[in-house]
Amino acid sequence: MDYAQIIKEVGRGKNHARDISLEQAEALFDAMLAGKIPELELGGILIGLRIKGEAEQEMLGFYRSMQKWAPKLELPKGMPMPVVIPSYNGARKQANLTPLLAMLLAREGVPVLVHGVSEDPSRVTSAEIFRGLGITATQNLQNIDWHTGKPIFIGVEHLSPEMYQILSLRWRMGVRNSAHTLIKMINPFAGDVLRIASVSHPEYIQRMSGLFNQTNSTALLLHGTEGEAYANPLRCPQMHLCRNGNISTVVTREMGERDAPELAEAKSIESTVNWTQRCLRGEITVPRSIQLQVEACLRVISVS
Fold it and tell me: Alpha-carbon distance 92 to 23, whole Å?
């Protein structure tokens, strides 16, 4: 590929850059994942896309490329549709409730796979909370026992080493890149799954839903909490279901002050683990927004 020409197209700044075609985008991401693009050119392309913003056709091409490299897991016969939850942001201001969401779904008999970063020096990750809950991250998804009633967690470095290499450039370049949006959409199963996907800005709901619908994917889409895919316990967001090429709103409830839940006192690992265990034992009430999210997922799975 002529990488200089691609940089010329995408690197002209927000107002003058041009989009590349779906086919070019797929081939470009193929080359990224294969490690074929020289570092200088790769950095130029990623920064150019970051400033320009990826067009829908570009993201679709990138997505198709990523899925070629993704695992194709098979579940035992008779198991319900699996739920896949990305966790790449962690906690900055309040406790990370992604593990609670995963635990609640898994104890309903749903196969739940959580994937994400194994560590982040500036945030409390789901991986750390899972360890505190006695759930050790797996490094290999083959021969997994999906009947334990507990979620499976895998670090992205083991789920998709190719994507991990691109994600890791964040620490060298100082900013995130296209891979951070894409990895949250990965389907590591051979069949359809329910992906829980979050956006940081409401305007991205339409963009993400368009991509899910173009790929005929099933997803519960919501405005996330600090970048995580659980519903904010302090203000329940709208939740949208992407399925069969359509989008519908499945949760519309906005909570008032009277619904304020009892939350963990701090975002620390120990505090979050203790609070999550108390929720699971029924000693304190699960936040209503999380209850609504679990119920929405179970309704989707029950009609799959």
Answer: 38
